[in-house]
C-alpha cells in the first residue's frame, strides 16, 4: 500500500511540475537562468550565441512581481551585461519579463 501512495504522490508532483513548466503559470519568479535565456532570445545582437562565454550576465536585482496574477504575471529585474571582447558593461534597469506559451520572454527593456 505504501508503494501505491508513493507512486501517486510522484505522479501528482510530476504533473504539477509539467503544468508549471509548459503553461503560463507565474506563481514563482523566473530563475536567473530563465532571465539570461530570455535576454539572449530578445537581444541576439548583444549576445554571441555561438560562444556564450564572451558575455557575462549578472542579476543585480532579483525579479519581483509588478503586475498580473497567477497566469499573467509580469516581473521586473535589473541586470548587467559584460562583454569580454569589448570590455564594456551595460546596465539594464527595470526589465519586464513575462511568460508566454511556457517560455519566459523580455516584454520591455530599458538601458
Q: Strands across the major sheet, in which order?
A: 1-2-3-4
Described by strand count, sense and barrel closure, the largest sheet is: 4 strands, antiparallel
By DSSP, the count of extended strands is 4
Query: What series of H and E elements makes up the topology?
Result: HHEEEE
Q: Can you put this structure into words, describing what you see?
A:
With 111 residues, this protein is an alpha+beta fold. Helix content is 29%, strand content 40%. The protein has helices at residues 2-22, 32-42, and strands at 55-67, 74-83, 88-100, 103-110. It is elongated, with a radius of gyration of 17 Å. The N and C termini lie far apart (58 Å).
Keywords:
4 strands, alpha+beta, 111 residues
What would you say about this model in short?
The chain is of the alpha+beta class and 111 residues long.
Topology, please?
Layout: H1 2-22, H2 32-42, E1 55-67, E2 74-83, E3 88-100, E4 103-110
Antiparallel strand pairs: 1-2, 2-3, 3-4
Amino acid at each position: 500500500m505504501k508503494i501505491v501512495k508513493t507512486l501517486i504522490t510522484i505522479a501528482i508532483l510530476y504533473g504539477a511540475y509539467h503544468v508549471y513548466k509548459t503553461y503560463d503559470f507565474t506563481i514563482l519568479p523566473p530563475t536567473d537562468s530563465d532571465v539570461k535565456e530570455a535576454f539572449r532570445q530578445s537581444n541576439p545582437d548583444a549576445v554571441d550565441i555561438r560562444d556564450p562565454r564572451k558575455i557575462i550576465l549578472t542579476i543585480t536585482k532579483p525579479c519581483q512581481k509588478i503586475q498580473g496574477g497567477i497566469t499573467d504575471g509580469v516581473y521586473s529585474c535589473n541586470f548587467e551585461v559584460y562583454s569580454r571582447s569589448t570590455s564594456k558593461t551595460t546596465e539594464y534597469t527595470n526589465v519586464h519579463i513575462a511568460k508566454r506559451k511556457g517560455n519566459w520572454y523580455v516584454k520591455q527593456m530599458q538601458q
